[in-house]
Amino acid sequence: MLLALLWSLPAHAQTAGTVVRVPLTIDYLTLGEALQRQIYTQPDGSAVLWTGSDSCQYLVASNPVFSSGGNSDVKLETQARLSLGMSVGGTCISPLSWKGIIEAEARPYIARGMMLRFHVTDVNLYDEQHQKTLIAGRGFDLIKRYFIPGFEGFGFDLNPATRELAALGEEAAPPEVAERVRAALATLRVEPVIKVLPNGVGATLDVTLPFVATPVPGVTPTPAPLSPAEVAAFQKTLDQWDAFLVFAIKQLGEARKDPILRDQLFKLLLDSRYRLVAALANPASGGPDPVRILFLHEWRRLGEIIRAAAHRGTLGNRSLEFLSFISAGDALFALDEAAPALGMRISAADLRRLARIMAPGVKTDPLAFSYSEDPELRRMFGFTGEPLHEAPAPSAAAAPGTAGVSSPSNAATSAPTTSPALTPAPAASRVPTPARPRSATPSASPAPSPARDAAPSAAPSSWLEIPIRLLSPASACAAEARPRALKDAAVHNLIALGNSLRRAVVTDGNARVYHEQMRELLELSAQHTLVTERVPARYRAMYQRLVKSVAWQESCWRQFVLKDGHVTWLESSTGDIGLMQVNRRVWRGFYNIRMLEWDVVYNAGAGSEILAHLMLDFSTSRDLGADSPGALARSTYAAYNGGPSRYLRWRGRESRVERLVDRSFWGKYQALAHGKTIDILSCAAQWGKTPGH
To answer: pTM, whole model, 2 decimals?
Structure first.
């Protein structure tokens, strides 16, 4: 509703000379960090307020904390130590020694040069248990004499914040309104009245709007569909937002090892990406700026995460940069909401400027977008291993006499953009029954690299002896990865199954054998993940059923399909890939996209790993109950399908499509629990016609 209101305001609603008041809040955490940097400058973070004639005479303060004092005053509390002693033989003889808390109440005001300062109105002393205490007159006088001037000498300069806001505002202005925005921002000033708020000190910025011509009323035309160029620009804008969010999250992740912070950032990233995928699935002409929508959805949440981490003290010496980063974004949106007639839009330049506030020393482009694996991102969120994958097929040179696969067509290298229909293979390229995995352990050593344009051929007796033209370079999987060291027979069997099912398409003729091999592959993949992710014993049976039911729900147990007579990976209209339908955008950076497409073992491992992470995260939720494995399975799938914030959607209000998807999953999960199994061909015939694909 707020978005609709802001974007529907007519340009003539604010005319020449209209003063728009923009709220600007300097939260107490930011004030505390600024005070630390100005006054509490000792190596241990303390402030030496006074020293006497020898080392036994001092007043030292530490750990300042701002809060609301009620009415028009703020409150500053700081731990303090006072000693009025004398050194005798290297020992302090102290007639007066005190340790406790100094509490000052102070009134904020705007001083000359747009400096926020404080006038102390009262001082109280407390012991370490926060009980009011009294000390000798000289000691109290000394505290007031040195503490009050130190505090009143502190100033928070509002000039950088207003300059930053003006720069952000100008960069947010499209060319057609740039002059209007520049003229308005030139009038920006700070009102002298300061408010004390529950979360910080509130200032007000005044902006005088220039004249805006009143548009001639008329019938608003129906927006035309987006052109291909507009769709590409729409996608680029969303990609830049996602890259910016990853940059910010990685900066925060480096600050300190904080499991609460990491968990919150992980959920924020996934939820933002699920919304991004939804936006890309429904590009609209004439609507609000998509980056602005995502910003409004996630910015407040990011601010809460950063402020909570700063309050816990886990951001280290970068707290002020992180808090300033959030404050600058808050101010930009406050200006946008207060003056929608200015016509600003959040731009790539704005995102880069905000990133520089957070990490001024970083030289890389914070909006650089890539689908490459990001080991740093994986480590940050606890994805410490790597999914297993198939052993690369021998090259033609390494396996003379075997039938090769023809070179791919350069014109057919992309995945289908719509749900592929399952059709029988043409007679010349029909996919036969996949061979059962051989009992011999496959070699873990890499095969010789094939030529750039040569496709690898399969080992003798494999179904890959039948020539099939592929949609991607056939060496994609072999060239990008090598199998990890094999540890036990189960892992050997899993990789052998993957090799047997390599590019296998289920048909009437191979459905029975295909079903058995895919069932075993899913079970072995789940068992492997049970060990690597340390899934507790009480969840193991439920988890193994969960993996198979999710693969049933998402792909009908299929990694590959035929499209125009060519084998390609299964992909939904929203970019969900393969057996476990791992979304390429949601899990960008976590996994190798080409291996998700062409390697069924890798795809199964990725989906199993994601499910384990989500399940273990929600297993401690009080909303589910410790003894409800069914509820945990349903919530894990809801998060897998719709993002972590949607994990309880099956219990409450959800859209009709979400309700159908969740009920469909639950039916499959219960069917497996009662010993039933999937009819792959019947399921595949409905895939793409039911919600969720």
So the answer is: 0.76
